[in-house]
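Ops channel
N.P.: pipeline sanity check, posting one input/output pair.
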């Protein structure tokens, strides 16, 4: 499939506030290409799948998927059928895999949109077979129904037990449904040495099931296990395909020169000095002396900039300098104690990303809040418009 190169700085939603998330599509393409090259150093034939669920981790699934395809990704993974259907018209014939089992009532729609579901139970497989058998010969040839099977190897979230996987693989083949993948999810790949025993045990379990499946299928399916952490810490888990998630967005790969894709940006809309010693924002949780300059910025926790960042020592960048939050983050605004007398109304404020020589990453915010960068990025709300460049 040919994917058109995106234009510079196009905006997919309008905003009447000076607050937006800037997404660098060149960085997406380069990150994908660089990580694919790393994967191929261990296995020259390995394919790359892009995980674009949750609106591409808050970056915008449609545009990120197109950029990832240009970088070399040729399979796309989502979490919900709505996500899959929204992408179908933008990805042409490229495979879209649903990382989960749809409700049986949705299987007909899944097939008609040429989405590959993951099937976890023989009951749901029976429903899918019934949907396929009800298709005309022409429609069956047009839609080419396929599925993937997830093996329970240790995450204990979803997936089928080994014996059930073999039964379902054979039943799918007999019904003319292609089994295009056998996979599992690593539970502790990002922990380094403490997680090694768990990872290796999962590898053994998955390979044992896969060998059994290969024995009953005419065409060997793709075997996949590694996420970004698996690629970096356990290259032997690469198998036929890497499911690239957080690394594509520029995080979780300190060993490889990837670039964070997203900047969260706003502007100073008010600047004033305290006439007397006072607290700032709700609750007056911290007091400041008279003469302190306070900047107001139109972004708040309803936009995904978390309320707890004040107590956690959160900062923003203005004129390339870090400035601390001056009070609790409100729903629509936050206040900053300005330490640079040259700051003026209209100055750019960077909440995630680079400005000058300074950088505040999503992982820094995550560390302050005792969470992970995934939650920070996916938490940027829909009312923050995404602007694309590259």
């Amino acid at each position: 499939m040919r994917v058109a190169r995106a234009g510079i700085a196009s905006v997919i939603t309008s905003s009447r506030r000076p607050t937006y998330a800037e997404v660098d599509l060149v960085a997406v393409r380069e990150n994908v290409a660089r990580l694919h090259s790393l994967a191929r150093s261990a296995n020259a034939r390995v394919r790359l799948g892009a995980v674009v669920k949750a609106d591409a981790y808050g970056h915008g699934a449609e545009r990120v998927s197109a950029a990832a395809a240009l970088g070399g990704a040729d399979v796309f993974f989502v979490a919900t059928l709505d996500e899959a259907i929204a992408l179908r018209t933008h990805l042409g014939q490229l495979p879209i895999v649903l990382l989960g089992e749809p409700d049986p009532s949705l299987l007909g729609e899944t097939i008609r949109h040429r989405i590959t579901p993951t099937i976890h139970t023989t009951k749901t497989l029976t429903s899918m077979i019934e949907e396929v058998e009800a298709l005309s010969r022409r429609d069956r040839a047009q839609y080419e129904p396929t599925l993937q099977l997830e093996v329970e190897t240790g995450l204990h979230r979803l997936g089928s037990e080994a014996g059930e996987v073999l039964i379902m693989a054979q039943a799918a083949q007999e019904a003319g449904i292609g089994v295009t993948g056998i996979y599992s999810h690593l539970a502790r790949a990002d922990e380094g040495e403490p997680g090694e025993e768990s990872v290796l045990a999962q590898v053994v379990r998955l390979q044992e099931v896969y060998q059994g499946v290969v024995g009953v299928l005419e065409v060997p399916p793709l075997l996949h296990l590694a996420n970004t952490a698996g690629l970096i810490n356990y290259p032997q888990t690469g198998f036929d395909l890497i499911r690239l998630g957080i690394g594509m967005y520029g995080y979780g790969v300190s060993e490889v020169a990837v670039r964070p894709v997203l900047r969260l940006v706003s502007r100073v809309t008010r600047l004033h000095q305290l006439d007397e010693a006072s607290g700032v924002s709700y609750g007056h949780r911290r007091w400041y002396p008279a003469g302190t300059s306070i900047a107001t910025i139109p972004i708040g926790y309803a936009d995904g900039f978390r309320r707890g960042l004040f107590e956690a020592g959160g900062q923003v960048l203005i004129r390339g300098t870090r400035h601390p939050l001056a009070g609790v983050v409100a729903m629509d605004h936050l206040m900053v104690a300005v330490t640079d007398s040259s700051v003026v109304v209209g100055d750019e404020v960077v909440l995630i990303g680079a400005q000058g020589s300074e950088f505040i990453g999503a992982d820094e915010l995550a560390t302050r809040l005792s969470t992970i960068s995934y939650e920070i990025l996916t938490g940027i709300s829909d009312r923050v418009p995404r602007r694309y460049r590259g």
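N.P.: looks fine end to end. Residues 179 and 191 are 32 Å apart (CA to CA).
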